[in-house]
Records
---
Amino acid sequence: MVERATACPALRHGQPGWQLDLPGGDGLWVALQGAQVLSWVAGGRERLYLSPRSPFDGKTAIRGGIPVCFPQFNLRGPLPKHGFARNLPWQPDAPPVLGAQEARLSLRLAASAATRTFWPPAFDARLTLLLEPGQLQITLEVNNTDAEPLSFTGALHTYLAVEDIAAVRLSGLAGQPEWDAVADRHGHAADALRFHDEFDRVYAAAARPLILQEPQGRLRIEQSPSFANTVVWNPGPDKCRTLADMPEQGYRQMLCVEAAQVMQPITLASGAHWQGWQRLSVS
Ligand code: TA6
């Protein structure tokens, strides 16, 4: 057992990344590809779903963990689905900051020849991971380093690990405006969301925390008001069968709860800065 937080470069799934550990046993691993957290252990349990069928080839989107979707959400624009940030290598921005009970690591993706093939603007993005006992906060920052304004949408597309999706309830969204992307129907959120089939809905974000309730325990999910939406996604059995990078029964073990900006792009003037975060806490 370590006595102080530690951080070191570490390979997993054949991919380069960083491992952060706290004295009490909590830890995370983040891949350089996409600055994608692929494991977060808290309270002795893995809290993130990661598909065993992900290709791990250093460039194809990884199915699971916390994909950073930037600068486009889904297919709402001309870019590849969910943008390019999840396909490109990010780099540590500065040495990790380590305390007795916390570890912080920032990774950076700046405009390059690779990003300009998709998207012309100059930008500087940073993802900061703050690991504390029972808690993980993920903060995305975007700086417009271009002479012109830039606009983006996106998400922290978190895949939460669940024991059995049939036993999961997600509360905290009651009454929020809801767009059901499967039925293309607008309505309002039920008191507690249950998941029996394909579920793909975009909500106006709630000011209160969401609670993911399972027989094994609860997880509290918060997001900054700078993300206008929360997206909740589970492919259900039929859609899951069509996803080559998911096991047939994989949908049973995951639920995506995403801090997102879907409908209304964020526009940054030249030199302007934006940040948005999601915080996950074991309770
Ligand atoms: O956030 C939900 C969503 O946009 C769904 O519509 C679904 O397609 C999902 O993301 C996964 O997208 P991906 O490109 O990772 O397969």
Note: The first helix runs from residue 113 to 116.
---
Amino acid sequence: MHAWVIGNWKQHPATKAQAVSLVNDVCQNLAQASQSKQRCQVMLIPTHLHLDAVATVLADSQSTVAQPSTAQPIQLGVQDISSHADSIGAFTGDCSAGQAKDLGASWTLVGHSERRQYHHEDNAQLCDKIRRALSANLGVILCVGESLADYDNGSTEQTLVTQLTVFDDLTAEEMTQLSKALLIAYEPVWAIGTGKVPTLDEVNTVHGFIKSHLVNAYPSLEDTSILYGGSVNENNASEFASSEWVNGVLVGGASLVAEKFVQIAHAFST
Ligand code: PGA
């Protein structure tokens, strides 16, 4: 199983030209860095507005940049999809899973802590988003993680269990479909964009807990890859990569500098 290294660009960069330049740099650097290694699976998640331009560069680079024979194509994801409809509808400001798929995305983030915080997304809405993703054939990267208050008072596991009840309303058929295209990203909210990271032991313990909870409560999801996210950078990536419990990383800030992002991908390549 390949590890995942996923760049979540959030609301960056400022212009389409910069987005094109960033994806070009990632493609060039990756092709060079990966020559001697079995490359991890890389995914980029730009804003909706830059999706088309980034997809075009990725498609071009697959055919023009010399790729090592071990390289998987770079995948494309979106940061959010509409909870209301999988295709079209009167939902001002929304973009659907089907529209993202049409532009070349094959994955969507669901439940990133910034969406939970600033858009008050709750489990009912996140469950709808998972359903929309499934019906448009988009894979789901479900983000979970505790706040600093949860961490301080020892309620991390309880928070995660509550967040994972997002699966409770899915049918057996939907769960089977989801099991083929689900990644879970454990992202402690207090580690996102702060430069603070939990110790590897803490991450291993939480990933082990998530895994055993899946086995007990959602057995069809027991093989789900569990990624870590929160202040991952080119200096700490190798430590996370050394753990059998960490199946990859979701990277924010460091994914905006091609050289740093590619060093992280290199750490997860074998
Ligand atoms: P960060 O963000 O790497 O900047 O901490 C991670 C994320 O929000 O996914």
Note: The chain has a mean pLDDT of 95.
---
Amino acid sequence: MVEKSISLKAYNTFSINVLAQYFTSFDSLGTLIEILSDNKYSLNEKLILGGGSNILFTKNFDGLVLKNEIKGIEIVKEDAEYVYVKAAAGENWHQLVLYCIDKNLAGLENLSLIPGCVGASPMQNIGAYGVEIKDAFLELEAFHLKEKNIVTFNATDCQFGYRESIFKNRFKGQFIILNVTFRLCKNPNFDTSYGAINQELEQMGIQELSIQAISQAVINIRSSKLPDPKQIGNAGSFFKNPTISAAKYQALKDKYPEMVGYPIHYSLSKATNSLSVTSLKEPDACKVETFKLAAGWLIEKCGWKGFRDGDAGVHNKQALVLVNYGQASGNKVYTLSQKIILSVQEKFNIILEREVNIF
Ligand code: FAD
Ligand code: NAP
């Protein structure tokens, strides 16, 4: 059933109260096709919604919001090394991670407790604690809104980059991701390169590394640092971590010796001309041309940590997270983000890019 003039407050983790002109959910491809073949909505702008945890609404949405609720997780293939798990787009991301951990399948444990749905995970190649979904991704199936056909994308087709994919760029708004298949390891290759994980594992008194232990360590760290959207509205990191040249990094490092940066290598994608950036697990001095900085540190240095203007603010434990304390409008949060971008630019000559999708 398509509803009219529905508040989206409960459908976005920023808890921004805007209206959708039309709103409906679908739990199968058949229902989706039925809705889309209704001429009444053919000219309307469409917005595919998962958990609404990476969105900032700055105005009412004059179009049709389609909430993806296609469910199902299944093992589709197995070989000597891997088990292939296919998850429908409407599945909760963390539930998929727990499903894999329960079956002792490794690859997604560092990505524990990321809010949202499976279908949105390839959108920005979700990443945390040294791992990105591209590391365990096999393929996805997506429905083309105009052509009304299903297309399969492998990892190369998706053009994954740092919090990027083809679906956030060239194909923005064109496809509805229906399901994603992951390649999970039977014999885990643990990634604890991210300092905070090792510290937490030590504090937990873990003697023998396991995917369960890594997942729990990540859950512990995240729960202690990040605001729970159920308590305070937010969409996680509002900005991407910027990358700068080695020369610029050195100049800043001379001025701010305490500044932390991570060496990265990059490749220029010919197809999109967009940068695909990957952190180097083991820094290789010969390849290092750019560095990734922690945007949260830059914002904090500009004095924004804990800032509050009415109900819009900057989280007091992690300056990268903008928050809605209750009744902030999307515009108020957006204006705050503009001010932060300007002040970081003035102080460091670095232009921060928003990670959150603005509507
Ligand atoms: P939504 O917010 O519903 O949608 C995001 C975008 O994807 C929109 O443009 C939407 O139209 C599109 N979209 C959604 N589903 C589909 C689909 N099926 N097909 C096509 N397009 C679709 N992100 C990280 O990468 N790493 C983190 O560690 C992380 N931590 C977070 C912590 C907190 C507390 C919060 C609130 C957010 C965090 N995020 C993180 C951001 C967010 O959780 C992820 O980006 C997540 O994948 C978004 O999923 P969602 O279902 O909520 O997407
Ligand atoms: P943190 O540990 O305080 O570190 C700050 C930043 O430094 C991170 O953003 C991270 O970049 C980078 N970093 C730290 N250690 C690194 C290492 N060993 N190698 C490469 N980069 C390193 O970060 P945090 O805010 O608590 O977040 C922890 C992780 O969860 C991060 O990976 C972060 O991306 C992820 N997270 C993402 C969101 C989101 O909405 N996108 C929200 C919360 C947490 P990277 O971000 O590139 O990893």
Note: Helices lie at 29-36, 93-102, 155-158, 195-203, 211-225, 246-255, 295-301, 330-348.
---
Amino acid sequence: MTNRIFNFSAGPAMLPTSVLEKARSEMMSFRGSGMSIMEISHRSELFESVLEAAEKGVRNALSVPLSHKVLFLQGGASLQFSMIPMNFLSKGRSADYVLTGTWGEKARVEADRCGRVNVIYSGEEDGYRAVPDEHALSFSDDAEYMHFTSNETIEGVQFSYEPDAGNTALICDASSDILSRPIDVTKYALIYAGAQKNIGPSGVTLVIIRDDMLDRVPQDQHSMLNYRKIAANGSMLNTPNTWGVYLISLVMEWLEEIGGVPAIEKINKQKSERLYAAIDGSDGFYTGHAERNARSNMNVTFRLPAAELDAAFCSEAARRGLDGLRGHRSVGGIRASIYNSFPIEGVEHLVEFMGEFSAANR
Ligand code: PMP
């Protein structure tokens, strides 16, 4: 490994080294074709086999049942903020939104353009530190769907349970924690995630959608925003991000090799527990942002005793090869994003550095 650093960025994030090496080895002539993956037709058998492998990999990793389609779209998770209400919410109808952070709020703004939004929980007043109590959520009888964000990337706030929305269609933005722990896909009408954290590179959005939702798409929906049409065309209504889908197939192979989602969940827990222990054991030098029962295993957010120390912390860390630690501008402080591919050694280095930095700056 030459000059690789520990990249704590919130996304695009680290990819497994073996995936990058495999992609490099196949770069000039993809599987004997004499072309790179980026130069072959998306209608070729070769690319179709890649798309199939990516889909199969996702299906295996998350035990996606046959009742759900696995789609690879473009436009990022942000386009889903609009596509979901454009397909499932119309004027005079309503949808429930649970707001545990900045991304959920962005999704709400887009839904507002299409119909009535009931915010059934918002953690905004407290600076988004919490998730609702599992039994405190009550859904509107007439809601077309309920939308929540399983992990809020900016605040580092994560659900520790999967909400039970009863008969209401459950929709989840899982951009920053998909594939980090097992989920029960049968509970969801739609799950979506930008790829650039746990799935692959940016430029692909994974959408897992239950078949009955496709029947709800309005007949006059624009083609490129139409889940039914995209599904009917196997994610190839237009030219897909061939490079992105290829890398996803490699990431899914890697995940399977290391033991799948249950194995990565254990590693993820070890990593986040090490970091939270360092925060809690710092005699108040470091303070976690999220409430304990809402702490994220993916984005560990914390503060130093004075905001002036943030810059020194980040630049000294960067000198040691620990990069991308600056918190999001809206929250400040420090954010260590430790997605699936982030190695535990990087966490050990950060913990060591945190100890030294607090000793020197108390
Ligand atoms: N939702 C969540 C939870 C995110 O973390 C992000 C990006 N960080 C987005 C949505 C937006 O994703 P994209 O940039 O792919 O549109």
Note: The first helix runs from residue 17 to 25.
